[in-house]
Specification:
This protein is α/β, with parallel strands linked by helices and 229 residues long. 28% of the residues lie in helices and 31% in strands. The chain starts with a strand and ends with a helix.
Length: 229
C-alpha cells in the first residue's frame, strides 16, 4: 500500500516513517507538513493509506478530509483524544493517540489490510516513542525499571535515564498491556518484574535501589502473577 504522512511535526513524521519501513506491504510515497501540501501530493500520486495529524497550520486534518471528494483510507495520528468522534464520523480507519507504540500502529494497519507482514530484521522491535520536553524519546519496554505517576505527569525510570511525560497511568498501562513483565502494583506505580530483587513487608526492592510500595488493591493479583506461595 502506498502511504502518505501528513503531520507538521518533523519528529512525528520520523516515527511513522520508521514504522512504515518495518512493514513489507507499506511503501512511503510522501511526507507533508500541511493540508495544502497533502492536497498537492494526492493530485500527483495515488495514495492508498494516509496517516493524518489533526492540528496543523492553515487547515486542520479533519477540515481537510471534509474537502476531499475521494479519500484514501485514513488513520488519524494525534495527541488530542477529543476529536475521536469527529474522526470516526468521517469514516477513518483508526484513531491513534501519540505517543504511538509500534504494536498499536500495526493493529491499525491490519484494519486496512489484515495480516500484514513485518520485515524480519524488525520483528523483535517493541520500542515506542514518548514526548518529553519537545522531543520524542525512544523507549524500550524491557529497559523500563518502573513508572511513577506524579499528578499530571509520569516519570519513566530506565537504567541510564529518566523521562518525564505528560500522560496518565491508565493510558500508559493500556499502551504496555502487551508486555506481561510490566505490572501495576500501586495506584501510582508500574513495575518491571525483571528488576524486582526482593519483596519485604509489602515493599518491592528493585535492583536499581528504588523501593516501591505494593498497594492493597493490587497485592493478590501481583503475588499470583509472581507465583508466590
Amino acid at each position: 500500500m502506498k502511504c502518505l504522512i501528513v503531520d507538521d511535526e518533523l519528529l512525528a513524521q520520523e516515527v511513522i516513517e520508521s514504522y512504515i519501513a518495518k512493514v513489507d506491504s507499506l511503501v512511503l510515497v510522501g511526507k507533508c507538513s500541511s493540508a495544502l501540501q497533502a492536497f498537492a501530493a494526492l493530485n500527483k500520486e495515488t495514495v492508498d493509506l494516509m496517516f493524518m495529524d489533526i492540528k496543523m497550520p492553515e487547515m486542520t486534518g479533519l477540515e481537510f478530509l471534509r474537502t476531499l471528494k475521494q479519500t484514501p483510507k485514513v488513520i488519524i495520528t494525534t495527541a488530542f483524544h477529543e476529536y475521536a468522534l469527529d474522526g470516526f464520523e468521517l469514516d477513518v480507519v483508526d484513531y491513534l493517540l501519540k505517543p504511538i507504540p509500534f504494536n498499536r500502529f500495526l493493529k491499525a494497519v491490519n484494519k486496512v489490510k489484515p495480516n500484514v507482514a513485518i520485515n524480519p530484521e524488525n520483528r523483535q522491535e517493541n520500542s515506542f516513542y514518548v514526548r518529553s520536553d519537545r522531543k520524542l524519546i525512544k523507549v524500550n519496554p524491557e529497559e523500563i525499571i518502573f513508572i511513577e505517576a506524579l499528578k499530571n505527569y509520569l516519570c519513566i525510570y530506565m537504567p541510564h535515564q529518566k523521562v518525564m511525560v505528560h500522560s496518565t497511568m491508565l493510558y500508559m498501562e493500556e499502551q504496555l498491556a502487551n508486555f506481561p513483565f510490566i505490572h501495576r502494583v500501586h495506584k501510582s506505580f508500574l513495575v518491571n518484574k525483571h528488576f524486582i530483587k526482593e519483596i519485604d513487608n509489602g515493599i518491592l526492592k528493585l535492583s536499581s535501589g528504588a523501593e516501591i510500595p505494593l498497594g492493597g488493591l493490587y497485592k493478590d493479583a501481583f503475588l499470583d502473577m509472581m507465583r508466590i506461595l
